[in-house]
Design brief:
Two copies of one chain form a homodimer.
Chain A (H helix, E strand, L loop, with lengths): L2 H8 L3 H8 L7 H14 L5 H5 L7 E6 L5 H16 L3 E6 L4 H13 L4 E5 L12 H6 L5 E4 L8 E6 L1 H14 L5 E5 L4 H16 L9 E3 L4 H13 L6 E4 L2 H14 L8 E5 L13 E4 L2 H16 L7 E4 L2 E3 L11
């Protein structure tokens, strides 16, 4: 018995049920009575949303992240914690690693603490196989699940995403406009975010009428040395490329190392673009042009959406935030005409 | 009224009082009776240590860190959370920033949550002026305060430290043995850890009979560009140096950038050593020789000490962990004879 049963039986939206529970005046008296009657008939006791009223809340939100020592996720945790605290909520942190069973175990643990919501930071929490996400859909019947840069369709699940596809499309378009013709694409993950980025690469090629060549697309673990070694080996196999677009700054650092190892001039002979605009992008010489995926805005928007859910507002299940491309010295300035 | 009053009045150690409270058999019957009588006389109700018994515990530890987007602290939070969880404890995270008032506010907030202990991650929580640390000493009467890489003397305050002084001494000695004569020292903080590192620099010079020159010691904000610009300006002022020892990898990255900007060959004409052995040290070309300050071991030892405190063991108030020097390509291999 939960708020979804009430919504179904009363023939109103979940947001309406939640408004009734919160005493929000934007509900007609007729609807309010209908909802209250259904609750009574079903013997429903407010749970999640009562917490939003401060009746039964710990004012605590669980944050799960796969690995807080990843610079992107470390930033996300910082901004999430800060934003939650500004709304009077504590954060219980769980660093889960990447194993599904371990993630599920920690997820249950957080639920047993009666947290008011669970935020999943990073795109590694949504699995490829639908049945592996069933535990998230089930849990969402009881508490809001917030995804930061991940996407899963379901009631009471809210996603805040960077527009990764558009970000990569713009970046690759810049490479094309500055004269690059053989643009290698290096990525590390098949997550929702990972697939969106790859789609952006294809969009840009298609818009420019450049045929897609699978031999230019390569997966690589998120590590500068792995990326450098992969590029060395691809070059040794005779693959020709004059630009490297990457899904993460660490891969772009590897591309800079590859160019240094082979004495290739950046950006004249090789252009490179990173992703996430992390500290790493500013460590190399030359410094790396990188997509600013707006992690702070993403985290603030996630928490704002959650506060909307708590107060029974009609919040969007999906919010998309535009990225910026931060131009540094691994891309050419002059456009080819 | 707290456990320290009991210990003082009974004339036994805090560890003994805690053993009595925990029913530990390693206490003589006579001592046990004396302690119980003093508690009775003073009207003392067990508090902190009762929690260790599971009588009144949330099994939750507060972690404060100044900035989890700092790579070193992000790693620390990850290891602390993992280690606490392996002992069945949750972590409530607070990212405080560097302002004393804000730190104090968050500290009070954590105490009001009745956490079982508070871990202060990083050396930025101990202030220079003793009166600014009074709130920590007061709080320690009620719950254990754990410092990760910080040091403050007081009952129920436990420090786990990297031997920063020895680490820098070894690193600077390596520079001297490989022929460097004018070793610049760049640091960012006057924290306990910051001062220890600087002492290590002086130790190494003294051991080699090299006079200390204040014009070779410079403070710089923890940022690669700030470090590069400082070195450019020092060189322009005519300062001569053939090595840069730094208190953080970001400063060492700046030194590499300085050398590239001026066409100075690394390590032949300039040797560079970083600190913390973070991801940053492996982003540059050449990669940076750096002190591994053993953040994982530091965090695990902190949590082990805390578990000892909870179970009334006689734990050391200070644990020091030895560092490693990870040799990469910014230092010379050949010793000068």
């Amino acid at each position: 018995m939960n708020i979804y049963d009430v919504s179904k039986h009363a023939g109103v939206s979940i947001a309406t049920v939640s408004r009734v529970l919160n005493g929000n005046p934007n509900v007609s008296e007729k609807t309010r009575e209908k909802v209250l009657k259904v609750m009574d008939d079903l013997g429903y006791t407010p749970n999640v949303f009562a917490r939003g009223l401060g009746l039964d809340t710990m004012h605590t939100v669980g944050i799960m992240c796969s690995d807080s020592s990843d610079p992107y996720l470390a930033g996300a945790i910082y901004y999430l914690e800060r934003s939650l605290r500004s709304h009077g909520y504590d954060s219980i942190l769980c660093c889960t690693g990447y194993d599904l069973e371990v993630k599920q175990k920690y997820f249950s643990l957080l639920r047993s603490k009666r947290v008011d919501a669970i935020i999943l930071a990073g795109s590694k929490f949504v699995e490829m196989r639908p049945r592996d996400n069933a535990y998230l859909l089930e849990a969402a019947a009881d508490l809001p699940i917030m995804l930061v840069n991940g996407w899963l369709e379901g009631d009471n699940i809210y996603s805040t995403l960077c527009d990764d596809r558009e970000a990569v499309r713009q970046a690759v378009s810049l490479l094309i406009r500055t004269g690059c013709q053989n643009i290698l694409y290096l990525y590390s993950s098949h997550s929702y975010s990972g697939l969106s980025k790859q789609a952006g690469y294809k969009d840009a090629l298609e818009a420019a009428g450049i045929p897609l060549r699978q031999e230019l697309i390569h997966q690589c673990s998120k590590d500068a040395e792995a990326s450098r070694d992969l590029l060395l080996s691809l070059a040794d196999q005779g693959l020709v490329f004059d630009a490297v677009m990457t899904s993460d700054d660490s891969l772009a650092v590897g591309a800079v190392k590859y160019a240094h190892a082979r004495g290739i001039s950046i950006p004249d002979k090789l252009s490179i673009i990173g992703y996430n605009n992390s500290l790493l992008a500013r460590c190399t010489d030359p410094e790396i042009t990188s997509v600013d995926s707006k992690v702070e805005a993403l985290c603030t928007a996630t928490v704002n959406t959650l506060m909307g859910v708590f107060s029974g507002e009609n919040v969007p299940s999906r919010t998309t935030i535009a990225s910026d491309l931060i131009i540094r010295s691994t891309t050419k300035r002059r456009f080819q005409t």
